[in-house]
Amino acid sequence: MTSVRAWDEPGALEEAARLLRAGDVVAFPTETVYGLGALCSLESAVRRVFEVKGRPADNPLIVHVDGVPCARSLAREWTPVAQALAGAFWPGPLTLVLPRAPGLPSAISAGLDTVALRMPAHPCALALVSRAGPVAAPSANLSGRPSPTRAEHVFADLGGRIPLILDGGPCEKGLESTVLDITGEVPVILRPGHVTAADIAAVAGDVGLSPGVLGPLPEGSKAVSPGVMHRHYAPLSRVTVFLGEEEAVRASMAGEYEKLEEAGFRPLMVGIGAFLGYESRTAADMEALARDFYAILLESEKEYTHLLVQGVDGQGVGLALMNRALRAADYSVKVVDGT
Ligand code: AMP
Ligand code: MG
Q1: Any residues with Cβ below 6 Å from ligand 1, and which?
Q2: Conformational region of residue 97, where left means phi above 0, alpha means psi within -120 to 50, and beta covers everything else
């Protein structure tokens, strides 16, 4: 039995902290997506997270902390760059990959010598960590599915498998945190998010982008962030991303829509511009689409067979949006104007 409780209802946080301390797992809201947490000091609880999600053992977890002192205790080295980035972006959607402290359960890092750390901005996530201790938490979905941005999404995937979901309403950001590897000379973005390359560069100088961000990694390559190797974010409907000049993309999407409908399928067009009420291509619209993107995938799969997603440029949160859309499409892309 899975109970769903408003996170700020009396006793809910206490119950969640009690379950975590007892070695159980609990779903909770963050500002990015919902997380499925285990106390990071309890190896068997961490293993339970992998089990519940069906997560491959080679995909490490992010440890949620309630501040820099907590983060320092989990990292073998806390560098000036780590300090500067944490100072600039914590609490918030930036995960830092650092050398791991000895003694952390190895399952968290999936055998790597590093650990991923983030201080979330959501009051529920922070309160939970402060009460129970640092919490290892990936997104609270079945492995490979779109991440949950509402408690109902968590329930649909994990209901019956976990004892408690803390409900915090819709997540504010809607896409997972930026994952930044700062173990090398130059920080490298392993997964794009709301904290952009430009934001990071303003604090830490040069930034690299992992080749896995906008294309599949070559077969057999050893990924620094193994999570980027796995099929991910995929709804039941078939997703295609259309890239190219805006007018041409719209025409091509409309043509494809008609063809699918004629063949008896139920397609849906998703994007910024003519679709779904995102009126124009402003930064605010992009943020709104980022916030709603997983909900669109999860709601629409109940009704539609095909999603035709309009590509956006890689500015701001657009890069994160395209990264998720391309992965949801399993890189099924239609380049319309040949550029
Ligand atoms: P999730 O929390 O489900 O969004 O997944 C966590 C993401 O962080 C995955 O893409 C992981 O591969 C990545 N990650 C976690 N720990 C590490 C680490 N030590 N090194 C590199 N990437 C990591
Ligand atoms: Mg995930």
Answers
A1: 59-62, 97, 109, 112, 114-116, 138-139, 176, 179, 190-191, 224-228
A2: beta
